[in-house]
Amino acid sequence: MSTDLTSLFHVPTLILVWIATLVIAGGPLLWRFLNYRPVRRCEILQGVANLVTTGSWLTLGIAAINAHERGLISVLTSIVAMAFLLAGAGGSSLLIARLCPAEQS
């Protein structure tokens, strides 16, 4: 019952996920920049981290759900994988907040 791991990723769905993530994570910074408001270094770092983390979380989450639907992993494994991805997303946000404490508003 071996399958190619790339078959777990549905390309049109991934394209839509990454476009939506780019709009949600990068939109506010782009809006501030276009309105000639200053954008700080830590805000750019937070935006890039949000983009990468959210896109990766959704991409790997979709792959985990597809693997469960195909019978490659159990429901518990799928839930644990999503929980670890969410914990990683939260942890990275806290690390960036500690990196730039003076610039938090």
Automatic annotation (TrEMBL):
Transmembrane segments: 15-35, 47-65, 71-97
Keywords: Membrane, Transmembrane, Transmembrane helix
Record's protein name: Uncharacterized protein
Species of provenance: Bradyrhizobium cosmicum
